[in-house]
Amino acid sequence: MRGICVVALNWNGREVLPGMLRSLSTEAPAAGARVLLFDNGSTDGSDREAEEAFGGCPWFSIERSAVNLGFAGGANAAIAGISEDITVLANTDTVFLPGSLKALCEGLERHPGAAAAGPRLLWPDGSLQRSLRDFPFPGRLVREHLPLLRRSSSRWDDHETERRAEWLVGAVLALRTGVFRQAGGFDEDYFFYHEETDLQYRFHRMGWEVWLVPSSRVVHFEGAAAAKLYGRDTRLRYIPAKLRFLEKHGSRGSRTAFRVLMSALALGRLAVGLMSPARAASDACFSRSYCRRVLSTLWLNRDSRKGR
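Given the sequence above, the corresponding structure tokens read:
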């Protein structure tokens, strides 16, 4: 391979960025990689603190955008100037465990037909964070969300064995830089969530593969940036992102089918919450206010671009 560049996208990551960069301070040199921190318009000083802490390291460099370009826009801007064959795109709420960066890139190289590879993701307590997914077409979502069918979805497949995937959660992805560019990069009409789903679907359509490499292990503190941006409505941002995906790639009527499915799930949760106030108090997804916001996002927000 002709070099590895780890691209870390940062937006107000003061709490998580130092841990991520400390993990890369040993991982990057061991893998022969460099790290490009792309700051996406941070206002919390995290970019300056990172530059002060790591600016003298030969493996570290930083670029900045004056405004938040979103994940897709920031990633495209960062990767535009990369000359390395492999780009490892990483959220700043991740920590690379020893040997994980090298193992991930070697995993990608083991599969010449792979455009992307992802590590085994772990929760901070060390338990498995399931990252295998099916493409979010309505029929697949039924299988994922209904309790009786849930175990047949990719989410519940074996995460211990190196295997092909439809798509992987994009907390960390090793990408063949040339294939990424051939695919047109990320679609910037996605501002937050499912950018990686759309990209991996286009890889699939081009005949490329995606692989899970469980010998590479990365801790993922999920949702650090999203929680700052969207607060209690973070989960709702998946809805316009899925609608955008279906607008691009779904069959006729797939968005309506998705709206009906998710409405049924929201109404079912609302019914459970009304019958069990304790459940609604302990899990906001069963609360009246949350279910109302789900229905509003599904039916009243007709523009699926940029999460609007």
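The longest strand covers residues 209-220. Try to locate this feature in the token string yourself.
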